[in-house]
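Pasting as-is:
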Amino acid sequence: MTSKYSFPNDFLWGVATSSYQIEGAHATDGKGPSIWDTFTQLPGNIKNGDTGNIACDHYSRWKDDVATMKDLGVQAYRFSISWPRVLPTGNGPDINEKGLAFYDRLVDGLLDANITPYITLYHWDLPQQIQNQGGWPHRSTVDLFVNYADIVSKKLGDRVKHWITHNEPWVVSTNGYLNGHHAPGHKSWGEALSATHHLLLSHGLAVPVIRNNSPNCEVGITLNLCPAYPASPSIADQQAAQQFDGEFNRWFLDPLFRGSYPEDVLMTHLSKKRIMSSDLSFIQDGDLQKISTPIDFLGLNYYSRAIIRSNEILEEENTPVEINPGERTDNGWEIHAESLHLLLKRLTIEYPIKAIYITENGAAYNIKPNGTSEIHDESRIKYIHDHLIACYKSLEDKVPLRGYFVWTLMDNFEWAEGYGQKFGLIHIDDATLNRIPKDSFHWYQRTIANNSLNH
C-alpha cells in the first residue's frame, strides 16, 4: 500500500548555499580577505589543501545557477552575503560598491525567476581585519556587524523580505574558537563563550535595524540543533546527555527565547574551571534583553542526533549501552529522521517560537558520475524523503513549520573537509566546473511539482 503525503499549498520548497562555499574569492572586484581565505592557506588546516579560491565559481556563473534553480522549481533560495566582499575591511563607510552590486544583480535575477531570496548575513566568513582586531570574542565586533547589517539591508531591503542574521553560532564559537577546526583556528574556552555572547548580541541589535530598512520583512536566526539521547538509562549517561543538550542546544535557545543562559551549563563551566566567574564580565547589563528581541522565525539546521555516553566514569562501571547508532552517511553522521520530528515538537512546546523553517537538511554521499554522466544517488533521495516525512508528521502535530531548504544546491567547499564531502543535488565537475544534476535533483523537482511525496 502506497501512502501519499501532501503538504500545505503554502509550504515553501527551497535550496541553500553559502558565499564562501560556492562563490570563489574573486578579489579583483575589491573583495577583502576573510578568515577563511587566511585559514585555508595554512598547511594542514583543510583536507587535500583545498581552498575556496574558485569553489563553484558561482560569482561568474550565477545566471546559469539561477536558471537551474528555476528549472528545479524551488520557490526560495537561501544564500549568504560575503561580509568582506561588501566591506573589505569589515567596517563602513568603506563600501565596495562592486561587491554589493553582485548581490543586487543576484536578488533581481532571483525575483525575475519567481524565486524568493532568503538572505543570511553571516555564514562564517568574517573579514580578516576584524579578526586581527580580536574577532567575535571582542565586543567591538558587535557594532561592526550591526553596521554591516544596516548597509546590506538598506541596499536590498526594498526587495528582500526574509533575513537571517547568523548561521549556526555554535559552529562559529566552538569550531572557530574552542577546538580550532574552523577559522580562525583558536582553542580557548574563554574566547568561545565570549564569541557566543557577542554573536547573539549582534543578532539582537541587528533585528530592529533590518526591520527599519526592510518594511514588512521577516527576521530570524539559524541554529544547528542536535537532540541528545543517553546511551543507557544510567544516571551518568542521563546527566551527560543533559549537559550536551545544555551546551549544544539550550545555550543558544534560552537566551534567544527566554532572555537567560541555562544555569546548569554556567555552573558546569565554573565547576570544571573552564572559566572563572570574572571571565563572564563580557555579559553586560541589558545584553540578554537585547538578545531576546522577538524574532519572526527560527531557522533550524538538522542533520543527525547525538547518542551520549558519560566519560566521567569507566565504561565497565556504567550501565551497558542500550542505544546503538543506525545507518550512517558517507561522512559518518548517523541517519535518524524521527529525531527531527521530535525536535520540532519539543521546540514549539518549550519555546515561544512563531514559525520554523528547516534552513538546512541533507546528506553527504560521495557518489561519482557513471559512464554516461549520471549520478544515481538513491541514498540521498531516501535521506531527504525520510526527513520530509518527519516534517509532514510535525505539520500534523501543529508545528508552525513553513518550509524546507535542502543542503545543498551543488557540491561545494565543505570547510575543513574541502571538496571531499558531496552534499549537493548537483555534481560539479572538478576540471570544468560544469553542473550535472543528480537523480536527487530530478526527484526533488518532482516532489516540488507535486507538493507531495509517496511512501
